[in-house]
Amino acid sequence: MERKMFRSIWIKFFIVLLIVSLFALSAAYILRELMIRDFRYYLEGEMEDKVYRVIANIEGSYEKYSGWNIDSLNENTIWALMLGLEIKIKDLNNRIIIDTETAFNKLSPSMQRRIKAITDIGLISKDKDFSPYPLFISGKEIGRLEVRFLYPEKEFFFIERSNRFLLFSLFAVGCAVTLFSIIFSRKLTEPIKKLDYAASAISAGDLKSRVEIAGSDEIKRLSETFNKMAENLEKQDLLRKKLISNVAHELRTPITVIKGEVEGMMDGLVPADKEHLLSLYEEINRIKKILDGIEDISQAEVSAMWIKKQKIHLKPFLKSIVERFSRIFIDKGINFEFINGEEIELNADPDRISQIVINLLSNALKATERGGNIWVKTGKHDSEVFIEIGDTGHGIKPDDLPYIFERFYKVSEGGLGLGLSIAKELAEAHGGRIVAKSTYGKGSSFTVFIPY
């Protein structure tokens, strides 16, 4: 698996770097061709200028001597050779009067060596055709000059060097691409391999597996996200185990009571009268509440699918909910205050908002002792409506506060630790949120924000 992953990433790196390198080399090759083309155009233009200078001298010689003068033509032919031109001078009958080879052979050996030293006569291309140029005197054609350019030695060197440089560049780029691909692939795959090992460990059930966080790039952020995910998975696993333990504990008591009562009735030790049947009914209700709590959290997960929004006049809506708790407030000796600054309309599901408020009020009642205070406050904040439910109860410990909205997390004994999680799910189903503030020993407040 590891070797396969490394090979795959290495090949991808190699291909990407190779494509980029080929683009760069292609650009260099095109630039080289354009430079060579322009260089040749420049040389050909120079040669054309030289040809016309030679033509002017030959025509001048013909006019001076009133015909073809061999000595003069020899001089002009050698001069043309020194300019980089191989020539043939022909008359109107197409007979060669003189050419470069003939004129060169007439020179002394020492002169030939000097000319060879300063010209490129050895680089004459025999496969290149001669170009004809007519010769005129006073508008009358007297013959023809045929010219073949010598390839300058510097052009050969320039082209040869550029070809060598291009081949060397291809080889160097190929080596560099291969080397960098291996280095970068190893550097990239090392943290990925660690992530792969950790992910495999988690999939095998080791939720304590973590990866080392190093660097400052996307891999670091991925490692941090992975560790956070693993931490959440571990925490959820612990909470699930705790839930199973809590549910088992909560269910064991009523089931034990029911079993004892029913066995007593079957053995005739306990009469099946109204009193004992009512006791069984209460225990069954306890079981139902436990199962309802588990069902509520499942429903809250898909609440966005069944939210039915409508216009809610918040003040009378909340007052009707609070009135259900008025008797409890009196019995517990708790002071209640409803704070409403203005009439507010909210577009929300009344059943779900009622469920959130009842849940938070129930928690406030559990946390507040006799003589304490509970309040409900409403208002607007930016583009949201807020409902704040606060109390002067025992508050929440700072260590517990970050986790109170997580499923199955319990601050105190009893219950399943699902109430606040359900409230959070329902608020988020409306596109809202819940914010909790608490000072341990002094009280807490929960503020529900819902867009209006």
Please specify the SSE layout and strand pairing.
Elements: H1 2-65, H2 70-82, E1 85-90, E2 96-99, H3 100-105, H4 109-118, E3 131-137, E4 140-149, H5 153-203, H6 218-267, H7 274-301, H8 303-306, E5 310-313, H9 314-323, H10 326-332, E6 335-340, E7 345-348, H11 350-367, E8 373-381, E9 384-391, H12 419-429, E10 433-439, E11 443-451
Parallel strand pairs: 6-8
Antiparallel strand pairs: 1-2, 1-4, 3-4, 5-7, 8-9, 9-11, 10-11
Helix pairs in contact: 1-2, 1-5, 5-6, 6-7, 7-12, 9-11, 11-12
Provide a short characterization of the protein structure.
The protein has 452 residues and is an alpha+beta fold.
Which tags fit this structure?
Heat Shock Protein 90; Beta-Lactamase; 3 domains; 11 strands; alpha+beta; 12 helices; 452 residues; Helix Hairpins; 4-stranded antiparallel beta sheet; 5-stranded mixed beta sheet; single chain
Note down, in words, how this protein is organized.
This protein is of the alpha+beta class and 452 residues long. The protein folds into three domains: 2-155, 2-Layer Sandwich (Beta-Lactamase); 218-301, Orthogonal Bundle (Helix Hairpins), CATH 1.10.287; 306-451, Histidine kinase-like ATPase, C-terminal domain (Heat Shock Protein 90, 2-Layer Sandwich), CATH 3.30.565.10. 60% of the residues lie in helices and 16% in strands. The chain contains twelve helices and eleven strands. The protein has helices at residues 2-65, 70-82, 100-105, 109-118, 153-203, 218-267, 274-301, 303-306, 314-323, 326-332, 350-367, 419-429; strands at 85-90, 96-99, 131-137, 140-149, 310-313, 335-340, 345-348, 373-381, 384-391, 433-439, 443-451. The strands form three sheets. A five-stranded mixed β-sheet has the order 6-8-9-11-10. Strands 2-1-4-3 form a four-stranded antiparallel β-sheet. β10 and β11 (443-451) form a beta hairpin. α6 (218-267) packs antiparallel against α7. It is rod-shaped. The two termini are 53 Å apart. The mean pLDDT is 82.
